[in-house]
Specification:
Elements: E1 3-5, E2 10-12, H1 44-114, H2 116-125, E3 148-150, E4 154-156, H3 160-165
Antiparallel strand pairs: 1-2, 3-4
Length: 166
């Protein structure tokens, strides 16, 4: 329960009413008046200067905090960009390995199709061709100079290569 003391002009609240100890506030003797805090009065110029300093400090703190947040934002953005590029590189490498595998397979297929045995097999089975035997080859030997018959009754000697050089 609160008691009002007219001399102190203050409320006293007993801490423990059931105790036999006196109701005294810690750090204060019974019956002494409370000390009033000393109020230091400032001039208007001092208050304005203090207000300016406080405002300038707040602006500096806000600017530093903003710069810090911008730096963190840039850092996060760069990490996200690196992650996206890494995923893109991995996807391109996967596609590249698939294309290289397909290229190797097609190269092997072309090499097998151009192989002499494949050409021989195609000529025999599809085109119906047969290999020439030695007894089927006839060699003709001429003692005369080679001659080429050109249409229109003109003849040409075997010196055709000399005409081309000129």
């Amino acid at each position: 329960m609160a008691n009002y003391d007219a001399n102190i002009r203050n409320y006293r609240i007993p801490y423990n009413t059931t105790s036999t100890a006196p109701a005294v506030s810690p750090g204060r003797r019974t019956g002494q008046p409370l000390e009033r805090p000393r109020v230091i009065r400032k001039t208007r110029k001092q208050r304005e200067a203090e207000s300016k300093r406080a405002r300038a400090l707040a602006i500096r703190v806000l600017a530093i905090a903003t710069a810090f947040l911008v730096a963190i934002g840039i850092q996060i953005y760069s990490h996200l960009r690196v992650e996206n590029l890494s995923r893109s590189i991995a996807a391109c490498q996967t596609k590249l390995s698939a294309v290289q595998s397909e290229n190797t397979q097609l190269t092997m297929q072309i090499n097998s199709n151009v192989a002499l045995s494949k050409v021989d097999d195609y000529a025999k089975n599809t085109l119906g061709m047969v290999k020439v035997k030695d007894y089927q080859v006839n060699y003709i030997s001429t003692n005369d100079q080679d001659a080429v018959l050109i249409s229109g009754g003109k003849s040409h000697s075997g010196q055709w290569h000399k005409d081309m050089v000129k």
